[in-house]
Amino acid sequence: MTGTLDRLPRFSLAALPTPLERAPRLSRSLGVDLWIKRDDLTGLAFGGNKVRKLEFLVGDALEARATCLLTTAAVQSNFCRVAAAAANRAGLRAGLLLRGSPESPVQGNLLLDYLLGAEVRFTDDPDPYSADTRRRLEEWAEAKRAQGERPYVAYPHGRSRAGALATVAYVQAALELNAQCRAQGVRPRHLYVAVGSGSTLAGLLLGARTLADGLAGTRIVGVCVGSPSSLVASKVREFVRAGAQLLDLRAPEEEPALTDRERGEGYGIPTPRALRAIRLAALSEALLLNPVYTGKALAALLEDVARGAVRQGETVVFLNTGGDPLVFAYATTLEDIARCEVGEVGAQRGDGAGEPGIPQKGGRV
Predict the structure, then answer these.
(1) Dist CA 345 CA 146 (whole Å)
(2) Which of 108, 125, 153 is the last residue of a domain?
(3) Order of all β-strands in the sheet with 93-99
């Protein structure tokens, strides 16, 4: 089936393979063997997990002889930022329909969207999957066709080709991770990843359960950062089925393991534990996470260590999906934890012992 994967159209954008690095200080303090899969280092325009997906989407667009790429997401979307960058690399024009206001501060990903020359429009519809969002995208595509353009609508939902291709990107990532684990003698019992739309988790599940045999027994945990797990689960299943159909694989029947523990008040709203996890990652491993995705995912992992859901001595892979520009969009929110004393960051540790700012074995973050 890897032959089918290799035959799909693809446009090279990412610096692959991304590193698999051990986190020695956090490992020692938590009592687990923690490894970081650095998909924040995919390279294009501040990188992140979206670069892998755009390789397949842009490849598909070029095969269809498209002249422009249209997509939609939140005003601080990592996907839209990378879509604009990928379009430039491929000689396409990019159009972004952003959920938010034209009055939104021009910072973080939105600043980069403008710098990359994307045509930006705004919608006040908060639902990326609503009929109105789809209608707006299709009307924009029709307008482009009337102007002589050939638009490619990159709208990755589970029933679309774009969604299947986005899923396939992380089937390939699962194979890459599997090879790295084998080469380094790593046998992960758990893998943690932030979940927004669900295609990254779906690709990891599909790859691990069908092709990457070294990950077959790995517990793959998706940390919901926006929509509740009751909604995300159905979307992940749709992505899994779409990716499996594209690769001629049998879709696994396994229900995705999802947690709402760090979802908080919703997408883009940081939780207190996520903010502390961001500071801890920076202090212990110089690892820079963001409050929308990766901070919440690491917070859930740390809490599971504290609860015993991840046991002492077990091997864990944390997939850092990136989103670095979001750090600057949340500067005001992050300022308080950035300025606090090191000891205050891990104050809930309880015993004050060990390395500064890092939760000790069995202690809550």
Answers:
(1) 56
(2) 153
(3) 119-123, 93-99, 68-74, 151-153
Q: For residue 237, what are its two tokens?
A: 């299943």
Whether residues 205 and 136 fall in one domain: no
> Is the per-residue pLDDT at 359 higher than 90?
no
Strand, coil or helix: what is 107? coil
Contact 154, 70 (CB under 8 A): yes
Reduced to 3 states, what is the DSSP secondary structure of residue 74?
strand
State how far the Cα of 178 lies from the Cα of 156, in Å rounded to an integer.
25
- Residue 353 tokens, joined: 């012992």
- Whether 235 and 195 have beta carbons less than 8 Å apart is answered as no
**φ, ψ dihedrals at 176, nearest 5°:** -65, -45
Q: Give the model's confidence band at 157: pLDDT under 50 very low, under 70 low, under 90 confident, else very high.
A: confident
| Total domains, the chain | 2
Domain match, 134 and 260 both = no
Which residues are designated catalytic?
77
Q: What is the mean pLDDT of the chain?
A: 93
Q: Does 361 map to a domain? A: no
Coil, helix or strand at residue 277: helix
Strand-pairing partners, residue 20, are 37
Instruction: Please give the structure tokens belonging to residue 291.
Output: 């409050």
Which amino acid belongs to residue 237?
R
Average pLDDT over residues 73-99: 97
Confidence bin at 76 (pLDDT 50/70/90)? very high
Match 């943690």 to its residue by tokens.
Answer: 192
- The CATH number linked to 137 is 3.40.50.1100
Q: Which of 249, 59, 79 is nearest to 171 (CA)?
A: 249
**Is the Cβ–Cβ distance between 74 and 100 less than 8 Å?**
yes
Which tokens go with 147? 């102007």
pLDDT the model gives residue 361: 40
In degrees, rounded to 5, the angle at the alpha carbon of residue 152 between the alpha carbons of residues 149 and 154 is: 150
